[in-house]
Design goal:
Number of helices: 11
Strand content: 5-15%
Radius of gyration: 18 Å
Helix content: 40-55%
CATH architecture of the largest domain: 3-Layer(aba) Sandwich
CATH superfamily of the largest domain: HAD superfamily/HAD-like
Length: about 240
């Protein structure tokens, strides 16, 4: 079946996670009075713990947000509104500092191909409302569907997350391709659900490799995404 719709992961696919995490860490350090190095270590610990729980117990997106913030607050001995502090830092980011320039062009290219375009993202440390605001500021309103784990109740790599995106885009999962940076959540999850997939391996590979017969590609960035999608079965 031809590809009729494409979903994008958010962090380290469309938006730079390091920039967002650095802003979060600086804001939390100021609020709690703790050194940034200590906050960074606590963030890493909370990240690992929640990702592990999500793998083992299938935490929902909203549970993952609550757990990550709770672990971080406990680790830092803070009892205030840490989620508010974090989300304030995220929504204050400027599009030019957080959005990958190749991502802005890639989304436009996919839209120009006549494909439906969506976002499918997991949530950790801040809610989808903050991410939506940042996406809107960075990309405008090109997306036909935006689905986040804290709203859908399921996280990638669960097949249900990809099926929800297919319903939202009005296509079958076999008519979708998913673009993301994590081998397990994005590439593995998409392929297991019956989609085609593009793994964005920023800084990890130098050249694109497209495996048409296997239904996936590995690329160093999003430049030339349209041609990669055509090789995987997109028209336009």
């Amino acid at each position: 079946m031809a590809i009729r719709a494409v979903t994008f992961d958010v962090w380290d696919t469309l938006l730079n996670l390091k920039v967002a995490r650095d802003a979060m860490i600086s804001a939390v350090a100021r609020e709690t009075g703790r050194p940034e190095a200590e906050v960074r270590e606590a963030v890493s610990e909370a990240d690992r713990a929640v990702r592990r729980e999500r793998r083992l117990r299938g935490l929902s997106g909203s549970e993952a947000v609550r757990a990550s913030v709770s672990i971080l607050a406990s680790r830092l001995g803070y009892s205030g509104d840490l989620l508010g502090v974090i989300e304030g830092a995220i929504v204050s980011l400027r599009p030019e500092e957080v959005a990958f320039s190749d991502a802005v062009e890639a989304v436009r290219e996919v839209k120009d191909m006549g494909l439906r375009v969506g976002v499918l993202g997991n949530t950790l440390f801040w809610t989808s409302s903050a991410t939506r605001a940042l996406l809107r500021a960075s990309f405008g309103d090109p997306f036909d569907f935006t689905g986040f784990a804290d709203e859908m109740g399921v996280s990638k790599p669960s097949p249900e997350a990809f099926m929800a995106a297919a319903r939202g885009l009005g296509v079958e999962v076999e008519e979708m391709a998913h673009v993301g940076d994590r081998a397990s959540e994005d590439l593995g999850g998409a392929l297991a659900a019956g989609l085609r997939a593009v793994l964005v391996a920023r800084g990890r590979v130098r050249e694109a490799a497209v495996f048409e017969a296997l239904g996936f590609a590995v690329v160093p960035d999003l430049r030339g995404l349209g041609e990669v999608l055509r090789r995987l079965g997109a028209k336009g």
